[in-house]
Amino acid sequence: MSSLPAVVVILVFLAASLATWGAGVQLSRTTDELDRRLNLGDALGGMVLLAVAGSLPEVAITVSGAASGHIELAAGNLIGGIATATMVLVICDLFAPRPLTYLVGSLIPVLEGLLVVMVVAAVLMGALLPRSASIAGRVSPGSIAIVLLWVGGVWVLNRARSHPAWRVEAAGSRPGRPHHRVRHPNPHPTARHSTARVALTFGAACLVTLVAGVLLEVTGSDLAGRAGIDGVVFGATVLSLATALPEISSGIEAVRLGDHRLAVADVFGGNAFQLCLFLVADLVALKPALPTAGAANSWLAALAIALTAVYVAGMIIRPTRPNRLGPDSILACVLYAIGILGLLRIAQ
Q1: Cα 267–271–273 angle (5° rounding)?
Q2: How many CA atoms lie within 13 A of 39 on its CB side?
Q3: Whole-prediction pTM value?
Q4: Are 75 and 124 in contact (CB under 8 A)?
Q5: CB–CB of 315/109 below 8 Å?
Q6: CB neighbours (10 Å) of residue 202?
Q7: What is the dihedral of CA 205, 221, 344, 89, to 10 degrees?
Q8: Are 83 and 339 in contact (CB under 8 A)?
Q9: Could you tell me the fold of the domain covering 6-177+190-347?
Q10: Residue 46 has pLDDT above 70, yes or no
Q11: Cα separation of 84 and 150, whole Å?
């Protein structure tokens, strides 16, 4: 890419971003349809498959970045992507009739938010381990701990959903469907397609997403180098925004359909799984990725915890103001702006 003009590289980056958006939307819809028809989420393996399908842009960027030696860009995209993805809830708030955290009316997303906090905390702890504290010099114990923590958290969440120990009634709430397996009264046109056609669309969307993710990593690394931007900063901002486009589209669609609880759960669920990709980065790069996180990624991790805590508190407090953008979203915007300014300062 370094031999191409900067304008061409930018155009390729933008084209890959649009392809990620379009393929990501189709991936989300076909994944939901396959889950309903095949009951994939009933088993842990199915849940892992669904989580990977929803994080394919991050998977492609992580593998490509680790293989090409741009671990800092991959790490910035993984950790910074959580803060960016959480800000998707601000956009969803703009399309909701009331503050999103008021409409959720459930504490299950609170548990999902707490899982995000625990996994990000494990990232911070793993980043403090020395390089010598590794398994065979290739895998960080922190990366394994993150995966185990996510698996245990998913098991606890499913247990809480299937065997609730108590009931909460939130006046005025409109949570919508409890999960994607419940068909909406106005289903997407893919519901009328055959399973084979849905599976083919799913496969094509996976392929496009993977190719676009690799192009995003290659062009993004090149653009960051030309502009003299730190890889962590670029991965946490521009690259994270590009990979968050499918979440923005699916989040707006969920709110439009009245699935307010799912809009929050999808963001938190994707954020919790995303950090499991540090283990993939270790295996591809043949060395621990967490110790390379550095101060910038630690700052981003703290920002991700703060933003998640804001929305967790919002779902418990339930802001009742009639305006669409809730006080939690306003606070999240302020924190995010401060976080990005601080990130730029640290990078300098």
Answers
A1: 120
A2: 2
A3: 0.86
A4: no
A5: yes
A6: 19
A7: 0
A8: yes
A9: A middle domain of Talin 1 (1.20.1420)
A10: no
A11: 20
